[in-house]
From TrEMBL:
This is 4-hydroxy-tetrahydrodipicolinate reductase. One of its GO terms (molecular function) is 4-hydroxy-tetrahydrodipicolinate reductase. GO terms for biological process: diaminopimelate biosynthetic process; lysine biosynthetic process via diaminopimelate. Residues 3-126 form the Dihydrodipicolinate reductase N-terminal domain. It comes from Ancylobacter novellus (strain ATCC 8093 / DSM 506 / JCM 20403 / CCM 1077 / IAM 12100 / NBRC 12443 / NCIMB 10456) (Starkeya novella). Residues 131-255 form the Dihydrodipicolinate reductase C-terminal domain.
Length: 269
């Protein structure tokens, strides 16, 4: 039997790439889309193609009247948490691509997921090469104490840091060795220029977010050691294609556990 999917953000940049990819599979079935701009229409025609028989709803509450197994969310930072909570309470598993949520939000979602016996996979970045950046960064952090993150994105990106940088910083803060840089309360000048902090004390990880025309999304982990430096960097291109395979992998796997997992890397081995 196919895995029945509700896709929130179905007409967006990523949603438009996911819709045809799901249609090409034998084991996944799109049963409803959510998009404010095309509500009430058929998703196929809303995307400029043939009718698909998939209705577009304006809210998750309306879409959840359709029997389904998994909600995939690629909407907006201010919308995603309510969507995920509604889906978990309705008995669906959830895959989150939308950025904007952090450790406290995922702790709350984890509680609700456990209450309802459902799985949730959230990845700041579903591309395989961005996932490898996280993997390599976590390995480097075992050997080098000092690390900071640079987050590059377009001028119009609404959230900072990116989901990619935030997941990386929160994961690194759990494992990193103490920094040798001056504590923030000893910084003279404008301490905010030292970036936003994730984690506590010497284990915090500082993220510096740039928002400039010409960037899509890039993330850089910079490790410094006496008289040497390691930079690990990922740059996204202009299409949403890199996120499709990882999102579909998560959709196939998410029924296999209860609670929240963060990162596509948690599914890689
Ligand atoms: N985890 C990952 O690998 C990736 C994450 N993202 C993140 O995914 C999110 C979506 O990105 P894009 O597709 O570029 O956005 P987009 O702006 O192109 O599309 C957003 C979609 O959400 C819908 N939407 C917005 N507000 C809504 C509401 N209140 N109710 C119902 N539907 C609503 C819009 O109608 C549209 O279909 C962003 O947070 C982005 O950072 C983007 C690419 C990859
Ligand atoms: O907003 C985007 O465009 C993207 N956002 C994701 C994030 O916040 O990390 C990642 C993706 O590469 C593009």
């Amino acid at each position: 039997m196919s895995i029945r999917i509700i896709l929130a953000g179905a007409t967006g940049w990523v949603g438009r790439a996911l819709t045809p990819a799901i249609a090409k599979t034998d084991d996944l079935q799109l049963v409803a889309g959510i998009a404010r701009s095309h509500a009430g229409r058929d998703l196929g025609t809303a995307l400029g193609g043939e009718p698909s028989g998939v209705p577009v709803f304006t809210s998750v509450e309306e879409a959840l009247a359709t029997p389904a197994d998994v909600l995939i969310d690629y909407t907006k930072p201010g919308v995603v948490k309510a969507n995920a909570l509604a889906a978990l309470k309705a008995g669906l598993h959830v895959v989150i691509g939308t950025s904007g949520l952090g450790a406290a939000d995922y702790a709350e979602l984890d509680t609700v997921a456990h209450e309802h016996g459902r799985g949730l996979l959230a990845a700041g970045n579903f591309s395989i090469t961005a996932t490898l950046l996280k993997r390599f960064t976590m390995v480097a952090a075992r050997y080098v104490s000092d690390v900071e993150i640079i987050d590059y994105a377009s001028a119009s990106k609404p959230d900072a840091p990116s989901g990619t940088a935030r997941e990386l910083a929160e994961a690194l803060a759990e494992v990193r060795q103490p920094a040798t840089s001056r504590p923030i309360d000893e910084v003279v000048g404008v301490p905010a220029t030292r970036g936003g902090a994730f984690g506590e004390g010497a284990h915090e990880v500082r993220v510096h977010a740039l928002r400039l025309p010409s960037f899509v999304l890039g993330v850089e982990s910079i490790f410094g050691a006496p008289d040497e430096r390691l930079t690990i960097r990922h740059d996204a291109g202009s299409s949403a294609a890199p996120y499709v395979a990882g999102t579909l992998l998560a959709t196939r796997k998410v029924q296999g556990w209860v609670g929240v997992r963060r990162g596509l890397d948690t599914l890689l081995d």
